[in-house]
Amino acid sequence: MAIISKDLSLAKSLLENSQLVAIPTETVYGLAGNALDSLAIASIFETKKRPSFDPLIVHVASIDKAESYCSEFPEPLGRLAEAFWPGPLTLLLPKTAQIPDLVTSGLDRVAIRVPNHPQTLALLYSLDFPLAAPSANPFGYISPTTPEHVNAQLGMYIPMILDGGPCEVGLESTIVGMEGDQLIIYRLGGLAIDAIEAVVGKVMIRDHSSSNPQAPGLLESHYAPKTPFVLGDLEVLIPAYLERGDSFAVLSLCDKWDLISNSRQLILSKKSDLKEAAASLFSHMRLLDEQKVAVILAELMPEIGLGKAINDRLKRASAKS
Ligand code: TXA
Ligand code: MG
Fold first, then answer.
1. Which residues pair with residue 5 across a beta bridge?
2. Is residue 107 part of a domain?
3. Whose CA is nearest to atom 21 of ligand 1?
4. How many CB atoms lie within 10 A of CB 229?
5. Which of 148, 169, 190 is the last residue of a domain?
6. Are residues 122 and 37 in the same domain?
7. Which residues form the domain of 311?
């Protein structure tokens, strides 16, 4: 298993030697390697069993650093960077030749962000290269929000997990780019659309499907537990499954049911707070996945604030079922 440690100098020396280290961010844990080193990049793809057509996000310490890896920084994206970095926002920017094609899967734009986590920022400041990091989970499974999540699935393949505690946001970053003058959200995430629109005005949300070559990672069935995951009205689903006699577990925003044991129902936020719900979403999905039931039943959130991004993940989790 990997060493779980707060030792920044160990993380630094491993990364300087083309090795991989799982790093904490405010969104989810990342599987990091030197973004300028093709050997490290290749082992990220191999460790995650990720198809090479799915590009990686490059993490940097500051806006200045981000500027050094792109040939142009369109003004509206600059305003977003000023407003939200460090934070759960990834920008698609035209890349310079310094970024290996392996990182962007041959696309002209590189995805860049400044993560908001004190240890990872300190690590980035101490390195003279940026870190490529996809979420630290096997391809297609739920993203990790604690060091233990990472260790359970990738611990046998990597030397170290930098321990930064549980992730505060709990949803991957929101990905934004431009096509002509149009701002486009390619992935809903930890930064809510309203916050983005308050800075740059109306944005377009790109409807993702498995055939979208612009953001190949946004396959419909993604972020998925192993247990079949069914979304719907719990007031209807629960009585139906009770009657059928199938074993099931329940993931709800705030309601509990008397007939179901506590270990088989988890709520995302007692006070229906969507920020709190986002922060517990992936760890709750994992806990229910471990219950070894026939099916997990879940409900959609209100479509406000982070609710939209949570619903996106819930729908992807259910796409396989
Ligand atoms: O919050 C996050 O973004 C986390 C933490 C670790 O920073 N990272 C993360 O990475 O979620 P990953 O690899 O699991 O998801 C990155 C997404 C993928 O869907 C990928 O297709 C898209 O970003 N992406 C990366 N580079 C891209 C590019 N050049 N053009 C279009 N989409 C890109
Ligand atoms: Mg991922």
1. 162
2. yes
3. 217
4. 25
5. 169
6. yes
7. 229-317
